[in-house]
């Protein structure tokens, strides 16, 4: 499967890229990528093939694809599907911005929805109409302009506009949920979903309970208690599980050395990473890679 790499679109200093693309009739190649992709369908209809299942998409649909998720498009004969793609890393939106602007609770379309099960994400997808569609399209058009001309200060403007976009989509998402059903009446459960989504987005960083408590405006003691009560796991254990899952993908899909993969996941000590991997997976990283590649060769 083809893998698209962020280095071909953006750089670490400013991890963002936006473009408009028209999918012609036929099937586009299924691929994965190492960045987050936000897709807005500006016109047309077709099917979005996500993790092996095809879902209908049409004008006004918005969805987010996480790193490592496979997807592509199917467009019927004579049809077209025009989309605007925003490619970025979570580091585009600094914690200081989230904290100072107090917007963590208003970005559920970024921290919660992309980590729900596939049926919920794509059968109950976000579809924009009327004023909402006009506002979001106008914002995306402005982002395309900023990214194209790159006048002084464009990075700041694009960061702010990306945050505005995610807040607007989260508002629309909640409005549509309230019209259909309440996503979660238990506020503790919703808080844990938000924190888990944050960990998924920032697993490579050094994340501590004090940092999370400050960001989500809760005491450290309450944070530990609520998270343990809702998940039966500690925060650090959840972070380890997320990292090990990412490691399994990297071991099979890349040729990176194990020490490099450990560093990409936020572990400075390869030996510690290897011990964790054995604890959660049951074998060493090297053995897991060997088995995975052997199985791939047998399938071919």
Number of helices: 12
Q: What global shape is seen?
A: globular
Radius of gyration: 20 Å
Instruction: Characterize the largest beta sheet: strand count, sense, and whether it forms a barrel.
Output: 8 strands, antiparallel
Give the terminus-to-terminus CA distance.
13 Å
Low-confidence stretches: none
Tally of strands: 10
Proportion of strand residues: 15-25%
The ordered string of helix (H) and strand (E) elements is EEEEEEEEEHHHEHHHHHHHHH
Helix-and-strand structural type? alpha+beta
| CATH first level of the largest domain | Mainly Beta
Descriptive account of the structure:
The protein has 300 residues and is an alpha+beta fold. The chain folds into two domains: 179 residues, Jelly Rolls (Sandwich), CATH 2.60.120; 113 residues, Homeodomain-like (Arc Repressor Mutant, subunit A), CATH 1.10.10.60. Helices cover 50% and strands 19% of the residues. It is built from twelve helices and ten strands. Strands 2, 3, 5, 6, 7, 8, 9 and 10 form an eight-stranded antiparallel beta sheet that branches. Helix 4 packs antiparallel against helix 5 and helix 9 packs across helix 12. It starts with a strand and ends with a helix.
